[in-house]
Write a structure and sequence with these properties.
Blueprint (H helix, E strand, L loop, with lengths): L12 H10 L10 E2 L2 E2 H24 L1 H17 L4 H10 L3 H13 L1
Antiparallel strand pairs: 1-2
Length: about 110
Amino acid sequence: PSAFRPRFSSAPASRVAMASAADPSAEDDEETTVGTLTRKQQDDLDITKIKVNMDNEKYLLAHPEIRDMISVFVHQVLEYKPDNILSFAGDFFTRDDLYACVKKKTEEVSR
């Protein structure tokens, strides 16, 4: 019984499965590589990715204004369809009335 190990490999799943079937001991070998990482490095990376995603989700839950800001931004992009979206984003997120704009638009949507 082996532990679940998520794979983030560029190799097709069938090739990974074939390699494991050909050498069943390879699954547990810490020096077996996935891409250019050892199995241990890949496992550590997978754990780090999960922790980062969990931390990000906690932060977003603690700060709902971020979702509101992004929602208003996307709405305005779709409304105005700017030619230069990077410039538009810079102007949007640095505007002096950003708080008031987001609050107003969020209240309008809530009605």
